Amino acid sequence: MLQRFQKELSRYLGVPETNLALFNNGTLALELGYYAMGLSGGDVITTPFTFVATSHALKRIGANPVFADVDPEAMCLSPEAAEKLITPRTKAIVPVHVYGNVCDVEGFERLSEKYGVKIIYDAAHAFGIFNHGIHGTHGKGVEESRKSIGACGDMSMFSFHPTKLYHSCEGGLLVFKDEKVQEKLFELRNFAIHGELSCTDVGSNAKMNELQALMGLECLKKIDELLDYRQKIYDTYAEVFAGCEEVILIPHSQNKAYVPVLFKDFATRERVYKELKEKCNVFSRRYFYPLLTDFAPYSYAKGTCPVAETLASRVLTLPTYYRLQIEDVKAIAENVMEIVG
Ligand SMILES: Cc1ncc(COP(=O)(O)O)c(C=O)c1O
User: Fold this and answer.
1) 287: domain CATH number?
2) Which end of the chain is least crowded, N or C, by CB within 10 Å?
3) How confident is the model over 263-275, as pLDDT tens digits?
4) What is the DSSP string of 294-325?
């Protein structure tokens, strides 16, 4: 099942099978990917506006996350802000295609060429996004419009957690430029046991199992339907919120994996979150709040990313999932409108 899944993903993503590796979840995929790319002991510039796993995985391999601010529109790491923090200790930059909003991949490509740093995307939210002027070896010979966003940079990680638009119960996928990395990753995900008599490194147990692969294969058959339905949900929210200045729907997601909205201030966002839950039985998420730099392991960088801090205090992601009915989307959107008055 795992081998079949790998083949199908290669076909779907337009990336050779030699440039993919599957794992039991996205966090371990990131951890082993960072490790295989040699980031241990170095500084890595990343965004605080993400899920904790992006930087936990860095910390766990002994790399030092350095936080740069995000672009206020797409909410992704800003290449300009990242560039200001590059030093001789910087080994890589880890931008996140947050909510399926695509990062400035050309900007990061320039930084990679200028400073020789690796670019590793946390693409946990970006499955189903194609065609971004992609280059490099992983995607060679594939029609431009069929190349996955995962073919950007040196490496990208997709999460197949059930909260994502596409899933394999749990799972993670690394897509990488240098096919030599594959053998290393295959070893690392299996304790770094090499043959019967040797163990070459400090590996982990991060193998995807057969049931996960089977679920992934089944869901892949429905991927176009899943993506279309997310778009329909997004469009329904957009219709209800059209012209309302109190609820700003973020339009940048290319796969509509999330429906993030911004409110005018923290107090309004908190009120909407609370009343949706308590009065309407609707569970939205303050995703990403608190900001990473508010959490104990990263508090050394608290206050250094003001744009991300403001976004975290105003954002709410609204429900979106395959079984959510369109009339319920309308009702949720109307609830939000009523709460903001
Ligand atoms: C941005 C981001 N990175 C990494 C992860 C970790 O992925 P996983 O849950 O598959 O371990 C997640 C989500 O869950 C995420 O949202």
Assistant:
1) 3.90.1150.10
2) C
3) 999 999 999 999 9
4) GSGGGGGGTTS-HHHHHHHHHEEEEP--TT--
Which residue segment(s) compose the domain that 174 sits in? Answer: 2-220
Domain match, 35 and 84 both: yes
The phi and psi torsions of 295 (rounded to 5 degrees) equal: -85, 150
What is the whole-number distance in angstroms between the Cα of residue 159 and the centre of ligand 1?
6
Pocket of ligand 1 (CB under 6 A): 25-27, 50-51, 53-54, 96, 122, 124-125, 159, 161, 170, 172
Residue among 51, 58, 96, 122 whose CB has most ligand 1 atoms within 8 A, to mutate: 51
Single residue among 185, 220, 255 that ends a domain in this structure: 220
Q: Which of 220, 255, 278 is the last residue of a domain?
A: 220
Q: What distance in angstroms lies between residue 316's CA and the mean position of ligand 1's atoms?
A: 18
pLDDT digits (tens, 9 = 90+) for 136-154: 445 566 666 678 999 999 9
* 191: phi then psi, degrees, rounded to nearest 5: 65, 5
Mode of pairing for the β-strands spanning 118-122 and 155-159: parallel
151 lies in the same domain as 249: no
pLDDT at 28 (0 to 100): 98
The answer to whether the predicted template modeling score (pTM) of the entire model surpasses 0.90 is: yes
What total of structural domains would you count in the chain? Answer: 2
CATH number at residue 126: 3.40.640.10
